[in-house]
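Quick log. Single chain, no ligands specified.
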Amino acid sequence: MDPQVMMTMFREMMREKRKEMMEMFFKHLAGSGQNNATSEVASVPNMMAALSNRIAKFVFDPDTDLCFTRWYARYKEVFVEDAKQLSESARMRLLCEKLDSNTFEKYQRHVLPKTFEESVETLKQLFVKASEFTTKYQCLKLEKSDSEEFLTYTGRVNKFCERAKIHELDSDGIKCLLWVFGLKSQREAEIRQRLIAVLDREYKEGRKVFLQELYRECENFLNLKKDSETIAGNVKTVEAAMKEERRKRERWNCCGDHFAQQCKSKPWFCKQCKKTGHKEMFCELANRRKTAGNG
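-> predicted structure:
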C-alpha cells in the first residue's frame, strides 16, 4: 500500500479515536451532577463555534515556555466574559476541545470531570513551564540545524536567552551552570538531576549559589549513596552469616536444627566410614576422598 495513503488512514483513525474519547468524556460529565444543561438555548452551538474560532489550540511545550498558565492568560477573557452565558458543561467542552490530543489524554488520566475553574487549576499544575534554572540550562543545548538560516538562528538564540534571563547570571551563576552542564556521562545522570533540583530550589527562593557549595552538595550526595550501598552490603553479609550459622547447627546425626548434645535420635551408622554418630553427607572421610579425587 502507498505510504501516503497509509498515513492518511492513520490520521483519520486518530481523529475518530479522539472524537470518541471526547464524546465519552462529556457523557460522563453530563451525568455527574451538571444539572444546568437544560438552560442552554438553540444558539449555543453557534456561540461555541464562534468562540472556538477565536481560541488557538493549546500544545504544551515547556522548553519554549508554552505552558497552560500563559495560554489561559491570553484567552481568559474569552472563557470568563464572552462565554459567561454558556452553561458549565458547555464551557468545559469549549476548554477541552482546545486542548491537543496529548494534553487532553494526560488531563483525562489525572482527573475526573470537574467544574470549569477546578479544571483550569488542574491544567495549570499539569502543564507548567520549565523551572528558571532548567530554562537557563537548556540555553546551553541550543544548536543550529543545517537547514536553518543564520538570521533565524540568531533570533531563536536571542529569544531563548532573554526568556531564560541569562543576563541576570553573575560569574558564580555561570560557573555553576557550566559545572552541571559538564556532567554528561550516563554514570553521572543521577547526580546531575540532583544538582539541577538543588539549583532550581535555590533560584526559586532567591538565594545565590557558589561553586564550592555545589561541589559540597555533590560530595554529600555521593557519600550518602556510598553509605547506603555499604549498609545494603552489610545486610547481605549478616544474612550470609546467619545462613552459615544455621548450617553449622544442623545435627550431624539427624539434620535437625539443634546442637549435637541436644540430639535425642538414635546414632546414625555412616556407610562411608562404617562409624556411628553422623550421616554420610557430614562424613569427613568421604569429603577428604572427594577432595582428593577432584585434585
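Residues 3-126 form one domain.
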